[in-house]
Prior knowledge:
mainly alpha; 3 domains; 15 helices; 3-stranded antiparallel beta sheet; 11% strand; hpI Integrase, Chain A; 6 strands
Amino acid sequence: MGTILTRRRKDGQSSYTAVIRLKKAGKVIHSESETFGRKALAQEWMRRREAELDQHRARGTLHGAKTTLASLITWYRETVGPTAKWGRTKAFDLLRLEGCDIARKVATELGTADYINHVMARRAEGAGPATVGNDLVWIGQVLRSARAGFNLPLRLDFLADARHELRQRKVVRKSRWRDRRVTPAEDVALRDYFARRDRRAQIPMSDIYAYAVLTTRRQEEITEIRRSNFERPCAWLDDVKHPTMKEGNRKKFRMPPEAWEIIDRQRAIDGEDRVFPYNPKSVGAAFARACKVLGIENLTFHDLRHEATSRLFERGYAIQEVQQFSLHESWQTLKRYTHLRPEHLVDR
């Protein structure tokens, strides 16, 4: 599989180049070489690399100099994903990236222009500046893992240069903080709509909506509230969302009395510990459908978390008290979800 070429330098000394080439159906699918001043070193390098490549082939994959970005993304999803337990956004974005033009390029040959062209093409398709910025974040994570796992000569500095240039052009940026709240008219319309809908629907959206704007809970968290985790007036929540640690992140949170009233009127199901045993995607879809029917624009279920947090402040709770409801890790993060209406502030 490998050969050693001997060359005479101008100074009369010899150099030894170890060359490894892999062929499939008569075509070279992988080629790499290294030059050494001693033949023994060239032989040792060739022996070690051939053993590594054999291991990759045994696993059904070959990651070498001609490996495409798409194959590295696939490896990253299948190898790192099961233990990392990403959220739905990252998992979806990685799958989408595998089908992009940039993913068909050889990973070790990617340059600054490739990343810039990818971002510009995505923006032309209608992707937002924060969305395309995430593309570069995910690609960077794939390359770092692949470089560590396969010792590939991947140039992360080219990716950093592209990100800097795109920021200078204001083509990419961090996501903007949303300040969308539910207006009083929208609140009434949603409650009326869900009251009519719930007569013939399986998911009690009236109670779920009311619970969301009382407790700050996300839709995924609402569908995981369990009766066995109650310690009134508090409850425990497992695997709470966290920037670096979600699995095993168990937190106790406070619920207002009105939320407990909603909990108490939910019918218990034999063998089911969850209070709202529904698919969170179905909850989100039902909310989006209601907004569409009612003509409510630019409102998501996650905005109800903003609404609930702001209402807690308007009721007179202090920062450290609101955190016991919302479970935000820091005031800086909590501030993103706080959009007070001056007319609703409590007189002191």
